[in-house]
Amino acid sequence: MSMARPLRVLIVEDSPDDAELMLLELRRGGLDPSWQRVETVEELRAALAQGTWEVALWDYTLPGFDSMAALPLLQQTAEDLPYIVVTGTLGEEQAAQLMRAGADDYLLKTNLARLAPAVERTLREAAVRRAHRAAEREAYRLAAIVQSSQDAIIGTTLEGTITSWNPAAERLFGYTAAETVGQSINLIIPPGLQEEERSILERLRWGERVEHFETVRGSKEGRRIPISLTVSPLRDDAGRVVGASKVARDITERRRAEAALHESEVRFHNMADHAPVMIWVTDATGACTYLNECWCRLTGMRPEQGFGAGRWEAVHPDDREKMLSVFRAASERREPFRLAFRLRRHDGDYRWAIDSGAPRLGASWEFLGYVGSVLDVTEEKCKEEALRRSESLLAEAQQLAHLGSWNWDLTSGAFHWSDEHYRIFGFEPQEPPITLDRALDRVHPEDRARFQDLFDQTIRDRRPYECTFRLILDDGAVRIVQSRGRPAVNEGDELVRMFGTIQDVTERTQTEQALRESEERFQVALSASPGIVVFGQDMALRYTWAYNPQFGDTVEDLLGKTDAEILNQEDAARVTAVKRRVLHGGVRVREEMTITREETRTYDLTVEPLRDPSGQVTGITCVAVDITHRKRLEKALLRAKEAAEAANRAKDEFLANVSHEIRTPFGAILGMTELVLDTSLTDDQRQCLETVKSEADSLLHLVEELLDFEKIEAGKLDLVPADFSLRTMMADTLRALAERARMKGLELEWIVEPDVPDALVGDADRLRQVLLNLVSNAVKFTKRGEVAARVQVVEGPAPGEEIVLRFTVRDTGIGIPPDARERIFRAFEQADSSTTREFGGTGLGLTISARLVGLIGGEIRVESEPGEGSTFAFTARFGRQPHPSEKVDAQPAVAVHEAAPTAAAAPLRILVAEDSGFNSRHIDRLLGRRGHLVRVATDGRQALNLLGEDAFDLLLLDLHMPELDGFQVARAIRERERAAGGHLPVIALTARARPEDRERCLTAGMDDYLSKPVRAAELFATIDRVVSGYGGPGPGS
């Protein structure tokens, strides 16, 4: 189904029904009307003004509407609008009248079926009429153009016969149209050019157009006229070429102008090529069209290489974009421009140049392009740069030296100051012009009159001046300046200007004043210090100056002399050798020298090189301090120090021996008491023996506390860090106190929080000592309830870092009054005297504990309420073992009640090396009661022999025995094992319970350490720990 053709219809009809019937017929005829119905002249006028219509359907008979009178309105408003009369009744005369008036067709409403075809036909006819009218108008327009054209327009046949000749042709060639039409075109063709004409006509036959062909034609007067000829083919209705239309333009004036231009360009090129500057020319597009020889010589480029955009290739890459931007901006505004840039020379070097361009305009002021020159200004640029650098250096030098310059033109009164001059006076550089009054306002009031008088005198006497005065700046700061000025006269000896400098010498003046004061103080100090000599010497080591010479010499006695002239030969040689080392090495030397003249004196001699501004050594300066008295004091002090150290060593050895001698009998007392308590006794006997054991323990603890306190006070208690298991240490420590707590009916418990690591590095013995002190105090001062110990993390570490733990000991004992909480940490003091009477003690335990906590990187605190108990807490810092042997699970709270550990499950073969018969018998009985097999050696050599004869599971080794001591025995055993294999556990026994003794034991290869007197609980606990570490009883069992 084909698409309906759109149609814009204006319907002049008073009946809507008739209008609807018309539209229906149009749609049936394949049209798609868009329409408007009008009934009056006013509506018609409005519709014609508002819309563009293709056809009008007009009812001839409308009430109050004169169709014939309204037709002129339609023809004036819409001249090309076709209209068809549609009416109910229409006579032949009326129809003829309407057709003559311009109607395109008419039909009756009874025959509307013809409406769509009539509309189609009318539209076609209207289109043809419009085309004819357009063609006529175009023909009239072309005829008018031909007649009014300034160019000669000639029509010819293909044979060359002239068919038309316009007025311009008459004016150009002198022939009238009457004289030429019908004649051959050869009438105006000069001899020899007929073949040219035939060639043109032949090209036309093939439909080719000839444009702007320049040639010559003849006039009626016989003058040869240069013309530009454009020839176009003329065609008939069938499109065949039937003739030619020739347009001839007189180019005589253009030829003259071109000749003149050519002559001008030749002159320009001749001048430009010989000019000492580079010259270029562009067209209106900016493309280069000319470069003179100077440009080509400097750049090394051929002209054709620089044409177009090529000349920009010679511009430095960093300058190219800027030049193009300036050139384009100037071209858009048709303005001159001037720009500095770098131009590449033929050897690749870049030269500074100035490019100046100006627009070129034609005779009619049309823009033709640019012409410009390029001037090599490299030398000038270098001079400018050198001048700029010189000025910059001068400005920097003035600023560094605080030196300004000034110039006063007396004829104009104008002042010129350098930037630094402005800064010295507290002004911003290049502020409004400076006047003499404004400058004088800055001068200190006390100096102003003096400066003004000096300045006036300089002008009057025409002599240079120099003076120093003070300035007061806006912020109140006072600066000291030194001013110099000089007058200048002209050829007529007239004063025309003054110039000079001003320098800020505040720091220099202050420094000079400080130096003078320092020298005065130095001389006073040296005068008051007779033991100090200061002097200088030149390269020949002759004295050039001196202060405080010794041995009765004066400064005059020394000047110009050498050491050989004032000292004995030996001393002079030694002193001179030291000074020559300084002169030749250029380094500072300090030595102690002994000089003998009237008496022998010792000097601390410091010698330093003196250098000139270039760094060359020009002499030396020396300071000799008489230290004779100090040296004597040092020797006396050394003797006293050696005596004190000997006394300390004797005291230490004495204390060690005291410890040994006290522990030995206590070993007998405690050992035998423990053995007897392990037998069947009456209650009275057991009570008496337990009292003996308790008092002996207290007395031994008192001795240990006193010895430890002495070491702490002497600063000789050192930490011995080592790997240890926190939980094992806690268990071993609190196990020893379990029996005491049990006997008092107390519950002793401890807990280590799950996040506390077990494998630590620190001094476990000192940690154990603190815990023993705190827990034993808690047990001592608690009658009922419990004692609890807890370990928590305070600062959790990153891997490999230290960890801080908090240890808390809480009891339900008697408590501590608030006023006594600080006093209990002081030596030999307890809460009050009644505490001492009831519970005993030296008052050293907490003092020692506090000192030990400080050593292990923590602090101890106490919280307490009288009658409710106390809580002691301390922190300690430990290292982490890098590779702990095993991961310890969370440690639950453990209530400790057992009095002693169990013995090894299987009997052991134990060798006891002990020279004390009592100690050996005591240990033999303790071990025998646990089922172990014991052999005793009374010296070190016997112990080694027995070990060579038999196999043992354990060696208890006294450190101090005849023949071979315990250290020698342990080293011998380990040497054997390195050769034969195996490992015999060794536990050291000693009455010297010093940390250094334990460290020596472990270093010598022993596995553990017991201090005497040997307690059963500690003995069996140590045996269990050592033997279990090596898999229990060995082959000797």
TrEMBL record:
One of its GO terms (biological process) is regulation of DNA-templated transcription. Residues 8-124, 909-1027 form the Response regulatory domain. InterPro entries: CheY-like_superfamily, HATPase_C_sf, HATPase_dom, His_kinase_dom, HisK_dim/P_dom, HisK_dim/P_sf, PAC, PAS. It is an enzyme of class 2 (transferase). The modification 4-aspartylphosphate is found at D59, D958. Its EC number is 2.7.13.3. GO terms for molecular function: ATP binding; phosphorelay sensor kinase activity. Residues 209-263, 337-389, 465-517, 589-639 form the PAC domain. The keyword Transferase applies. Residues 657-880 form the Histidine kinase domain. It comes from the Bacteria. Residues 630-657 form a coiled coil. It holds the Pfam family HisKA. It is found in: Cytoplasm. Its main location: cytoplasm. Keywords: ATP-binding, Coiled coil, Cytoplasm, Kinase, Nucleotide-binding, Phosphoprotein, Transferase, Two-component regulatory system. GO terms for cellular component: cytoplasm; protein-containing complex. At low DSF concentrations, interacts with RpfF. NCBIfam families: sensory_box. This is Sensory/regulatory protein RpfC. It comes from Singulisphaera sp. Ch08.
